[in-house]
Amino acid sequence: MKKVLCAAIGIFMLCACSGEREYPNYRGMSMGMTYKALYDTLLLQGYQVDTFHCSIDSAADTGLLTLLREGQPNFGLSVKFHRDTIDAIQESYIASYNDSTRHLWQSIRDSLEKTLDAWPNAPILKEDHKLAEFKYNGGKISVLLENTYTPTLSVLYETNAPEK
User: In this predicted model, what pLDDT tens digit does every residue of 4-51 receive, in sequence order?
Assistant: First the structure.
């Protein structure tokens, strides 16, 4: 009986683990694409490289790329990757006054709520410091408003770490 039960559990675990990993989307692009493919796509969309940090050794092989878009000086895009896999993409918005980032935070939050058909977890919800987290489809999206010294809004798209 124990052998049959162990075999059934083994088959169940094999079936559960054999599914393909799901990735979230970033503005219509799958975060499951290779880092190089995303980089080329963003360059074609008019982004320019601001900084590029890469730590390449046999253990780490990680990097961080920061991009800017011509004509949008208050917008930045950072891509964190490991080997050729995208770990996270962060949009950063800087505004001149607090109301603009509050309205932008609300519009992005409402848009994600409608697009994902999900209600966010909001552990911080003050007037000038807000966080909304959406967990979905292999990842998490965090919308963070920080109006302290400089009104700043960040949208972080993260993929789930692969199981080992």
Answer: 333 434 444 444 444 456 677 788 888 888 888 988 898 888 888 887
Measured at the alpha carbon of residue 47, what is the angle toward residues 45 and 50, in degrees to the nearest 5?
A: 165
Contact 47, 77 (CB under 8 A): yes
Ordered DSSP codes for 46-115: TEEEEEEEEE-SSS--EEEEEEEETTEEEEEEEEEEETTEEEEEEEEEE-SSHHHHHHHHHHHHHHHHHH
Burial class from Cβ neighbours inside 10 Å (0-12, 13-18, 19+) for residue 69 reads: middle
Q: Which residue's entry shows tokens 């994600």? A: 112
Yes or no: say if 140 and 131 are a contact pair by the CB < 8 Å rule: no
Instruction: Output the six-digit token pair for 105.
Output: 């935070």
Q: Is 106 exposed, middle or buried (0-12, 13-18, 19+ CB in 10 A)?
A: middle
β-pair partners for 156: 90, 142
Tokens standing for residue 128: 């000038």
Structure-token pair, residue 84: 């050729």
